[in-house]
């Protein structure tokens, strides 16, 4: 915590969430409204959709502005917090949208930082564990510089986020903007798109449809998965705090991809078999956050177990994923 900036003492009355109609952004908008913070959501629906925020439409303290943050960002009135979450995030999306991904990480971040500078607002960048690439240090602490292939297929996302981090630090140093960098590790939960290509929604969709679960490689590569409510609590704790980051936010509970698939089969009661397919290029072998900084500074740690989070996510997929939003999802896939 920065000297003089007591946790939870910061006054945040109005927040801008870029990418607010996406998976994480929509949960952040919902929680901010629950805390009685006015929210302006900026989104161009590139990978998000209006269904994610439809429960907030009609709320007089929630405003949706459909815009591309790489064009310009203009928000009239006071703003106390900018959460910059706009960016394709799943490998399927950023492999299909490489230039949009690079633009939103660079120009979009420049514009979001410009807004925070103009308004004197706190700024939180949604960075990623991908900045560590295929890591050679395990688990990954914030002072590990990473092992990234800039010209591999994932480079568009990884380097966009690394650039965004550098720009965030520059705005703090040169313009005195009150910035923070959150390095988010794999997060899952309701509102993930069934065709977004990430392992958990793919496995749940396949299991519920009675199709084989497609595990990349032999499934021994690991992921550490965080339930969305824990992630949101961590991001907002960082927003209310004065810490600059970079700070890992994620669940250190590490699972092999094969274990994730087996647990999804069990949680859905499916009799789907498991099928092994080729591993994507530059797919990281291991991933696990060192979250001691978040624990020490924010007194934050994940509370929702993998089993509980999986159960809630499966329940959501069973009830909320109807044919309509499968079609919407498929259009983005
Ligand atoms: P998402 O694709 O569901 O949400 C991203 C949102 O940004 C979408 O609503 C999309 O329409 C919007 N967007 C994209 N480009 C835009 C632009 N130019 N202008 C306006 N809006 C734009 O992804 P998500 O999983 O919610 O991820 C949100 C953020 O968190 C991303 O920045 C991502 O890099 C980061 N992150 C997510 C995870 C995760 O596990 N979900 C992990 C690490 C980092």
TrEMBL record:
Molecular function GO terms recorded: NAD+ binding; UDP-glucuronate decarboxylase activity
Compartmental location: Golgi apparatus membrane; Golgi apparatus, Golgi stack membrane
Keyword terms, alphabetized: Decarboxylase, Glycoprotein, Golgi apparatus, Lyase, Membrane, NAD, Signal-anchor, Transmembrane, Transmembrane helix
A cellular-component GO term for this protein: cytoplasm
Cofactor dependency: NAD(+)
Domain of life: Bacteria
Topology of this chain in the membrane: Single-pass type II membrane protein
A family per Pfam: Epimerase
SUPFAM superfamilies on file: NAD(P)-binding Rossmann-fold domains
Residue stretches making up the NAD-dependent epimerase/dehydratase domain: 16-250
GO biological process: D-xylose metabolic process; UDP-D-xylose biosynthetic process
Xref: Gene3D superfamilies: NAD(P)-binding Rossmann-like Domain (3.40.50.720), UDP-galactose 4-epimerase, domain 1 (3.90.25.10)
Alphabetized InterPro entries for the sequence: Epimerase_deHydtase, NAD(P)-bd_dom_sf, UXS-like
Protein name: SDR family oxidoreductase
